[in-house]
Design brief:
This is Charged multivesicular body protein 7. It comes from Meloidogyne incognita. InterPro entries: CHMP7_WHD. The chain has a 3-stranded antiparallel beta sheet with strand order 1-3-2. Strands 4-6-5 form a 3-stranded antiparallel beta sheet. It is mostly helical. About 7% of the residues have low confidence. Helices cover 60% and strands 6% of the residues.
Length: 338
């Protein structure tokens, strides 16, 4: 019999309370006979493991697992969860669990569209590729967990983004990083696909090649649709963010130089202090120039925001493209650096 004190002390949070009951768990861990032999016991065991598997996914903030993984996670002392293959078969027959490879096939047209849209390489490398035929190691997707994660991400977006400027346009990497505490990074792309299928999100690409998400405006009908205007909005926001970072760095450098100049004066080094203050003046001019450019970008941003629901946006988009390019060149900013 398993050592109860050792099991209790190390029991992970995703395991049920009756995990510590040796008598009850012995029956739940044992090989499961066909349903016709004892329908009541069969249904009880299957129900227990269905609930436990879903709780595990919820706790791990994941929707992907393998049978081998569950065997390890649900090992109880020297006991292995023998009913797992039968339970997973039941989940598959109910459509609650699917092979990841089958999920890819069902979303093949969307995956190809996303891969073509976002160059030079596919952002779904984790989805597209060889899959194992071994039932123990084949990746499985828990559909209920996937849908729950999709709703959770949607709630997170609405709570954290809907009050900012241009809330419906969010960088893929930015959201993945910010939401990593509620969704395992390996499952994030699957959750985005689910949101796309729900019509809540559309995926696009900026001119810099960044992956960009367009969330559905709740005031409009139909699914979210990524447009050229959305790409321009994203590029503009990114440029403004890089400018803002550059301004803060310059201001920090300015303050440090002022302290150095003060220290030089205290030492009686007036010439040294004067040279330092000349550097301060140059940095101050640089900051002012960047602030002017930031305001210019902000003005274009407002024009784009005001024209979001208008059909004729060509002039605004051209202005945005030229302004962003000029700003990047003027200040030596690139998509990779600020």
């Amino acid at each position: 019999m398993a050592d109860r004190s050792r099991i209790t002390a190390s029991r992970p949070a995703y395991l049920p309370d009756n995990w510590d009951n040796d008598v009850e768990m012995s029956g739940l861990m044992s090989y499961l006979k066909a349903r016709y032999v004892n329908p009541t016991n069969y249904d009880r065991v299957v129900s227990f493991w269905k609930s436990t598997i879903l709780d595990y996914c919820r706790h791990q903030k994941r929707c992907v697992f393998t049978q081998e993984e569950l065997k390890i996670k649900f090992k109880r002392g020297s006991q292995l969860p023998s009913p797992l293959p039968t339970v997973i078969s039941e989940l598959k027959s109910e459509g609650l669990v699917v092979l990841r490879s089958d999920f890819e096939k069902d979303n093949q047209s969307w995956l190809q569209w996303g891969a073509n849209l976002i160059s030079p390489s596919s952002w779904l490398q984790g989805l597209v590729g060889s899959t194992s035929n071994n039932p123990n190691t084949s990746q499985l997707i828990h559909i209920t967990a996937l849908k729950e994660l999709a709703k959770e991400l949607l709630r997170y977006y609405r709570n954290n983004y809907e009050m900012v400027d241009c809330p419906d346009i969010v960088g893929y990497n930015e959201l993945q990083e910010n939401a990593s505490h509620i969704i395992d990074r390996d499952c994030f792309e699957l959750v985005i696909i689910e949101l796309v299928n729900m019509g809540e999100v559309s995926v696009g690409s900026s001119k810099d090649g960044d992956k960009v998400l367009k969330f559905k405006d709740q005031r409009t009908k139909g699914p979210a649709r990524f447009s050229e205007n959305d790409a321009a909005m994203h590029d503009l926001k990114q440029t403004m963010a890089r400018l803002d970072t550059a301004i803060m760095k310059a201001e920090k450098r300015e303050q440090m130089l002022k302290l150095e100049a003060k220290a030089a004066m205290n030492r009686g080094d007036k010439k040294g202090a004067l040279n330092i203050m000349k550097k301060v003046a140059l940095i101050r001019k640089e900051v002012q120039d960047k602030e002017v450019q930031y305001q210019r970008l902000h003005s274009v941003f407002q024009q784009l925001t005001d024209s979001k629901h208008k059909k004729d946006m060509i002039d605004v988009l051209k202005t945005c493209s030229v302004t962003v390019k000029e700003t990047l060149n003027r200040h030596g900013l690139t998509p990779e650096k600020g």
